[in-house]
Design goal:
It contains ten helices and seven strands. With 245 residues, it is of the alpha/beta class. Strands 3-2-1-6-4-7-5 form a seven-stranded parallel beta sheet. It is an enzyme of class 2 (transferase).
């Protein structure tokens, strides 16, 4: 199950932080590392600071865009030191986040996403997440090194995995499958097209689509429910075309 929990590092500047993050992962039993546009990788500094976790580095995947890193995941949690303007569901404490991630990881891949050392994730990148999480550090000095943040959240995930009940540890074969982030992105594109063609999106600064994205993140529709929603959109689009014609 831990193999389904992915760590994603976005545009890491210092290669040593990649090595330290790999070390933090391995100590907690995590092995799936994806790097989005790292400044320098592979790198000797990353290997040196991995301190024995070079197998995690050797198996790391490098991709160009965050969508490639999380497309197959059913839950994507962006680590953020502060709340952004996007209304995504937010975990103020890592513990419930970890419990939920472990539950989903029995069925499909999930991901924890970490941004750049200096300013974290952009709003556009957070739009590829389903949730956010913050580490409740000292409000007067809440500055965490990238690898430290990875270590804390990886520990919470491992603790949730160790403390799960025997019944929860068994895959729930009858549990409806959640859509992947890629499938949700296709739905969001379809929704945007339907809302635009209908004339509903008349106030570009109202962040309507951000609020709708947050709504569906909270609702966590199943793949079947998402298919029904897309069917509804298609039917409404066809009805609008006939009416206009």
């Amino acid at each position: 199950m831990l193999s389904n929990i992915r760590i994603v590092l976005v545009q890491t500047f210092h290669p040593g932080n990649i090595g330290q993050a790999a070390r933090a992962m391995k100590t907690m039993g995590l092995t799936d590392l994806v790097l989005v546009n790292p400044r320098c990788f592979p790198d000797e500094e990353a290997t040196r600071l991995a301190a024995g976790a070079t197998d995690v580095l050797d198996n790391a995947r490098v991709v160009e865009h965050i969508s490639q890193a999380v497309g197959d995941c059913v839950q994507v949690v962006g680590a953020s030191a502060r709340l952004r303007s996007l209304p995504l569901p937010h975990f103020d404490d890592p513990e419930p986040m970890a419990v939920q991630m472990v539950e989903h990881a029995h069925e499909a891949p999930v991901a924890l996403v970490f941004g750049r050392e200096r300013f974290g994730l952009t709003n556009d990148e957070i739009r590829h997440c389903t949730h956010q999480v913050s580490i409740p550090a000292n409000p007067d000095y809440g500055v965490l090194n990238l690898a430290q943040a990875v270590q804390i959240l990886a520990y919470e995930v491992r603790r949730a995995w160790r403390h799960q009940t025997p019944s929860a540890a068994q895959p729930k074969s009858k549990q409806p499958a959640l859509p992947t982030r890629e499938q949700m992105a296709h739905f969001e594109t379809h929704l945007h097209q339907a809302l635009s063609s209908s004339g509903f999106l008349t106030q570009p600064h109202a962040r309507t689509e951000d609020h709708l994205r947050a709504l569906f993140s909270r609702a966590q529709p199943t793949r079947k429910e998402l298919s029904i929603l897309r069917g509804v959109l298609t039917t409404l689009e066809k009805a609008g075309t006939k009416r206009d014609g």
